Amino acid sequence: MKRTEPVRWCRTGGVDTFHRIKVGRETTRDLITEYRKAKERNRSEAASEMKEYVRERNKITVEAKKVRKKGMESVAKKAIEVMKETQGRKGGGKKKEEVEGGETSVFRKLKVHNM
């Protein structure tokens, strides 16, 4: 096994494991400009994503207020609608708890009288 001469300022290596590489000023300048461009690009993407998030959240809030204004029956209908959409995205196959009429036991529990 090859060993190196320990160096006082390096915890993991020694003389043979540390090799200084000279990097030209042009390379350093290019790296710095690329870093700044990437940082600005990241900042602008984050800002646009935050704006989109706020827009979508506001749409959901407005829709929730409209549904709640109409009463509990409207809320229950919307809940069933959302659950059906979610179930459709998850796989679309028939579930074990499915019953006649295309409703699952979960939907039967949520079903409001006089829909």
Give a written overview of the molecule:
This protein is mainly α and 115 residues long. It folds into two domains: 22-69; 71-115, no CATH class. Helices cover 61% and strands 0% of the residues. It is built from three helices and no strands. The longest helix is centred in the middle third of the chain and has 45 residues, at 25-69. It is elongated.
Low-confidence stretches: none
Range of helix content:
55-70%
Q: For the CA atoms, what is the radius of gyration? A: 31 Å
Tally of individual helices: 3
Please outline the major beta sheet.
Answer: none
Terminal CA distance reads 81 Å
Multimerization status: single chain
Number of domains: 2
Class derived from helix and strand content = mainly alpha
What is shown here, in short?
The chain has helices spanning 25-69, 72-90, 105-110. With 115 residues, it is mostly helical.
Question: Secondary-structure blueprint of this entry?
Answer:
Blueprint: H1 25-69, H2 72-90, H3 105-110
